[in-house]
Amino acid sequence: MGRSHRSEAFTLLEVLAAVLILAIWFLVIASTAIQGVRAEGLSRRRLEAALIADRRLSEIETSALDGSIPQNGTDESEEAQFDVVTSVNPFILDDTVPASGNGAAGPQGLEPLLARDLAPRNPDLRRVEIQVIWEEAGQQQTVERTSFIFDLESAVAAYDEAGIPSPDDIAVETESEGEQDEEAGAEE
pTM here? Predict the structure, then answer.
């Protein structure tokens, strides 16, 4: 019966060490959970901002298809907690588009494709940029969308002024030539 009390119970130091380890573990878990909640909130606001930008861009594109081309300029508005900036400008090829054959890697996307066929500035082609801006934890966050709108009526008027047949005139001429060929074939 010579057991010592030391082997039967935890010492105060061992209990404090265990509590310290649990406290550190809980702090790590809690900070991870808080970061997850913050990331979820940022993701939700980013998704909401993206939906606002997509909706605004869709409205502009739909009105352009209906013949209502937006005027050049910048429009700022507020929607919920977001600031929405809409910019409509003539499409201008920037200096980053390389000349063909120089081997330099240029930007990806629409601009290099159009560089071969467009003048550096085409007033009939407009660049539409939507920015949705909000404050998140003291930092400015932004979602951006860019699209291009072609003003067909303005282009047709420019073709007419220059005396160049418009694509619609060419299509009508081609159809009428086809009808004349059919009539000539029927007469034979």
Answer: 0.61
